Amino acid sequence: MKTDFTRRAALGLMGGAAALPMLGRPALANTKLTVGALRFTSHAASFVAYERGYFADEGLDVEFKFFQAAQPMAVAIASGDADYAVTAISGGLVSLAEKGAAKVIGGALREEKGIDGQKILASNAAHAAGLTSPAALGGRTYGMTQAGSSFHYMGSKIAAAEGVEVTFKPLQKVGAIIGALKSGQIDAWSIVPHIAKALAGAGAVKIIGNVADYLPDYQVTTVFTSASNAANERAQTQAFLRAFSRGADDFNAALVDKTAGEDAAEEMVKLIHKYVYADKPYEKAAKSIRNGAMRISKNAALNTASVKDQLNWFKSEGLIKDSITFDTLVDPSYAEMI
């Protein structure tokens, strides 16, 4: 998965410290990087940047390392097993940032009004027993990978908004959560639409609500790296973000805003299929991939209010220290803070 090109043109500056600057040609060539990812449509910006040579244009020789949950990805960044990654903020990531091992440098997937986003699901058994809306979650079991994961955060915020309590069941991997929901071992879960709609369409679960109704501006995933890269590898980090942002622009135009035309949309779905539902025939995978098209932030802009809300929730749950601040987690010099 390695190719070599040279950057030929610069992206426009966004202005101020929030810009992703390009001061002439980058002094990077064949710089080897490992990028952490999940096999989700929401990680498409990285896949597009690789497949269309945007990383290579920046002198970055990228290979992917795939994970099945957010927290192991954060550990991999801290240990040097991955250089950059895209995933949800987790308690593990925040704790690593507090120890000076990781930094969020931008935003990726986010909930946006008018764009179909993450879904709240009920098992068929729970639905038949009355779990037909989030208001009926009281006393139910809710799936998550680990404590402090995005699933834990979403479930807690939804339950709090409805004035009910749920019991969280940690199952470590997304695949295990899916299996538990389908078999009725847990009652509820929330997940990105390409998974949620595929499960519901197959009759395996029921959709009972939208995460955006409870977290309308949720910064679902972020771009992050080691604190060392953020502090000491500025040119490399800017180059990564430029390439990633080009991939996000292509993805948004093809499948979110749908301004690039149907041919471009079909081409985009075929590109993503190399990484998402690759074990399924294209004809079956294509609909699910299109269903997963949520906004990826332009120029890796980060929703600061959402990040601060997540940090406050972690503190309220006793998952991180009260002394941790936004600046502990985020290096705001790389991308626009909105």
From TrEMBL:
Family label: Belongs to the bacterial solute-binding protein SsuA/TauA family.
Q: Kindly list the GO CC terms recorded for this protein.
A: periplasmic space
Q: Biological process GO terms, please?
A: alkanesulfonate transmembrane transport
Localization per record: Periplasm
Print the keywords alphabetically.
Signal
| Provenance organism | Jhaorihella thermophila
Q: Note the Pfam families from the entry.
A: NMT1
Lineage in the entry? Bacteria, Pseudomonadati, Pseudomonadota, Alphaproteobacteria, Rhodobacterales
Q: What is its main location?
A: periplasm
Q: Where is the SsuA/THI5-like domain?
A: 41-250
Q: What is this protein called?
A: NitT/TauT family transport system substrate-binding protein
